[in-house]
């Protein structure tokens, strides 16, 4: 199945050369448009084209050929998208690496991908990559793809070589269906898998997002997520397509986010995971909270109970968008749909996508009946790298989420299939208990996991990051007053901070699964 073009928006697939060719075409027609704003510096489309061409020449000089995998370990800045587009121009494949990875993480992804050359943004990153046996590691300044900040052993200065390059590489016949990313998933339930993503995947995803947000040339986009995650990448293509600037923040900061939005005149952005709740928990400022140009916020996982409060505080619609690395965007709520506020609705399928809910026996679920969400359409990954496991089930991709469709045709998330807690004869969605816990004013963030229990099979344990001192029994009572008794956490353990995935979700697989370590409700009631 192919995606129908979003209404009124033409495809760019007639441009030869995939993403690199699209950059070249935009540089020829609108080269003076600002593409990136980072750390007070504006970079135009033409400047990005020039740097990407120069870096492509450097990489080719170090032996990178079509189909080769290139690992990139850079923090946020202009350097990452320049590297991505340079690799795309060569018909090679980027392997984004989290700069926070250590030896085991790196060894798995580098070994699985077969990357032969790497770009590093710091001395520490270069040393980590060289320790894995890379024959070629280039140092690149993450902020603007200039000269490397400092030399490191056998690593070459890719930034200095970029500055000396002529910038007219011989581009191979790259096509839209060529592989351009091995995008490793966050790994919340185990070792990451490499999603095989094509040039066409990114184009379709960006076009759909631009359609949902009704982007005009007066808009300003912003991203605070790390570039090794997928969101800043589709934002880059969206801005390249629509001719608007992308404001890049070094990282997500709850206290600094809205000041950046105001300072740059941002009109829309996308946030997910814990971001909306952390923003809401910042001290309100009646004078500044609405002193901005934001007309739309796209988000994933907003807590229904605080949805209306978030919109009231900042005076802009916040609308759900649901998807994954594998499937791109699947569902969205349109900006004008005010009836969705506070319902938890994730919206309807975007153009080119179909969705449905299936029961355990594979039959289609009725409206209101909980089952697994499955989807099909474009964009979609072409497979998992080095894995023979079937991608589709009866022609549909299983999202791994439990949900249901309501009478309006909107889909609702119940919880991750692998995050359901089976306590005795009851099924408990971790996300439901987490939503209640984070509603307590003393709770900054919470994660609920199953722990083994001899009598009931599994029990409910809550990890809590507190914003202020609070007794665990108070939190248990708070949940019990709002949910059924069997959903009440037996265990509560406080943490200073949570391990996070690149998508700003709590990395639950890194939390201890033993029953002890904190408060035990059963001990108190004996």
Which properties best describe this structure?
nine-stranded mixed beta sheet, five-stranded parallel beta sheet, disordered N terminus, Rossmann fold, 25% strand, 526 residues
Shape: globular
- Terminal residue distance: 60 Å
The class by helix and strand makeup works out as: alpha/beta
CATH hierarchy, class of the domain at 38-197 = Alpha Beta
Quaternary: single chain
Major sheet attributes: 9 strands, mixed
- By DSSP, the count of extended strands is 26
Strand content: 25-35%
Q: Report the CATH architecture of the domain at 38-197.
A: 3-Layer(aba) Sandwich
Question: Which consecutive residue ranges, at least 5 long each, have pLDDT under 50?
Answer: 1-9
CATH fold-level topology of the domain at 38-197: Rossmann fold
Please compute the radius of gyration using only Cα atoms: 23 Å
Explain this structure to me?
- By secondary structure, the protein is α/β, with parallel strands linked by helices.
- Among the domains are: 38-197, Rossmann fold, CATH 3.40.50; 424-525, GMP Synthetase, Chain A, domain 3, CATH 3.30.300.
- It contains 14 helices and 26 strands.
- It has helices at residues 18-30, 45-61, 79-89, 103-113, 123-131, 158-164, 199-212, 230-242, 257-263, 275-280, 304-314, 430-437, 472-480, 521-525; strands at residues 34-38, 41-44, 69-73, 93-96, 117-120, 136-139, 156-157, 179-184, 194-198, 221-223, 246-248, 268-272, 296-300, 318-324, 328-332, 348-349, 353-358, 371-377, 397-405, 411-416, 420-423, 426-429, 443-453, 457-466, 491-494, 519-520.
- The strands form six sheets. Strands 2-1-11-10-12-13-14-15-16 form a nine-stranded mixed beta sheet. Strands 4-3-5-6-7 form a five-stranded parallel beta sheet, sandwiched between helices.
- A hairpin with a 3-residue loop joins strand 23 (443-453) and strand 24 (457-466).
- Helix 2 (45-61) crosses helix 3, helix 2 (45-61) crosses helix 6 and helix 7 crosses helix 8.
- The longest helix has 17 residues, at 45-61.
